[in-house]
């Protein structure tokens, strides 16, 4: 079994184009790929990695300090894990270490960390709905 870490929207588009059952109702999109187009998509380049940890730093740098930025919530969730990981390693300054890994600054990492911690605390301790877009 494989887990897609990057390119999940591309994978979803392929599943729809190939009309797979996992994509749900195949008729929710009017697009129909020709057999020639599907044949060109039969093999796509990808990188297989040993573990999620092997690519964790790259993803953080690319999506926080790089050009393919995540939403504020996604950044905060990533930084929460990065700071907690640094703290578990007993580094002197977990915020600074996380900032260096993602190409950000200490204060920005600290602000995101505090914001996501406050939201999770409000949700867990007081039952406050903290979803931005409730279902």
Question: How would the blueprint of this fold be written?
Answer:
Blueprint: H1 8-17, H2 35-40, H3 53-65, H4 72-88, H5 94-102, H6 106-126
Helix pairs in contact: 4-5, 4-6, 5-6
Question: Any key phrases for this structure?
Answer:
6 helices; 2 domains; mainly alpha
Tell me what the structure shows.
The chain has 135 residues and is mainly α. Helix content is 56%, strand content 0%. The protein is built from six helices and no strands. It has helices at residues 8-17, 35-40, 53-65, 72-88, 94-102, 106-126. The longest helix has 21 residues, at 106-126. It starts with 7 loop residues before the first helix and ends in a 9-residue tail after the last helix. 14% of the residues are buried. The model has no long low-confidence stretch (mean pLDDT 82).
In a nutshell, what does this entry contain?
By secondary structure, this protein is an all-alpha fold. The protein contains six helices and no strands.
Q: State the helical fraction.
A: 55-70%
Average pLDDT: 82
Q: What is the count of distinct domains?
A: 2
Share of residues in strands: under 5%
Number of helices: 6
Name the shape in a single word: elongated
Report, as a whole number of angstroms, the end-to-end distance.
Answer: 29 Å
Low-confidence stretches: none
Gyration radius from CA atoms, angstroms: 19 Å
Classify the secondary structure makeup into a structural class: mainly alpha
Give the biggest beta sheet. Answer: none
Record field, number of beta strands: 0
SSE series: HHHHHH
